[in-house]
Amino acid sequence: MKVGIVGASGYSGEVLVKLLLAHPRVTLAAVTSRTHAGKPLAAVIPSVRGADRGLTFTDSDAAALAASDIELFFLALPHGAAATYARALVAGGKRVIDLSADFRIAKLETYTKYYGEHHAPELLPHARFVLPELTAPGWKDEVKLVAAPGCYPTSILVPLVPLLKANVITREHIVVNSYSGVSGAGKKAEEMYLYVERAESIKAYGLAKHRHLAEIEEQLALHTGAPTIIQFNPHLAPMRRGIATTITVPASPGGTIEQLYAAWRQAYAGRPFVQILPAGETPDSAHVVGTNRVDMSAVHDPRTGNFVITSVEDNLVKGASGQAVQIMNLWCGFPETAGL
Questions:
Q1: Quick one: which of 14, 109, 169, 236 has the most CB atoms within 10 Å?
Q2: Active-site residues: which are they?
Q3: What whole-number distance in Å separates Cα of residue 17 and Cα of residue 322?
């Protein structure tokens, strides 16, 4: 199957390029970039030299891409830019997996509140948010446009959703502290992302209304059938890749750590990309960099009555491009782990 990447020169696009070039079931047939149009792929991403299949960056012409023989496109573009391409590609009968925020939020009012004007609102009812470990299997025959989850939301939803559904934890007083590598901000030249500014330094940002809150709370409500409000505190960490998330949440009356782990094991039995560590063995972001895994564990604090849950992932793989490939595998009937 021929696939293409629109916006292939950013950090997520670069990871997609590497994954798809090595994928056993697809051929990467197009990589686009307005900045690098006309340049050989290997000149812009030297790490793929010898495996680049002679690909050259083309301009991001939505109409030309829609008229091509490529069956599925990944949109690795900033929010706002992806919607325009999605409109043209879906109209051309292509399957589309969007890595931006443009179709993650079902309600237009909520999207506008957090992101501003939506450039293809007519597509929102036809898009589907898919987090493979949590979304019911029936989605595969329903849509032409899939929204891949954000990096922070993945690290939060995977641990929380089974516990809320099993009533192991309360819905109130959920506090989430997340720490992201600098690559999560994308390739842009801003002072705060310079090496001198970020090395040996960590800082909170986006308080108290980070954009991913809209996605997190909407998905928690959809999966569990009731509104859930969290306190979300994101931080920029002095590392290139990875996300580490710590969730503090009160146990439900009578809730035990055994019940928590039982809910996780039931939800993720047989799922290859969720690793549940023993209580007290906290996961390390270094152990998931380059993988499509979420590693997680929990402890119970009898002094406060809280569970303290920790999860880690690679923000560019399970938090973005790897998860998009995982979605493609499921959508197209490939083995879930193909290329991953």
A1: 169
A2: 151
A3: 11
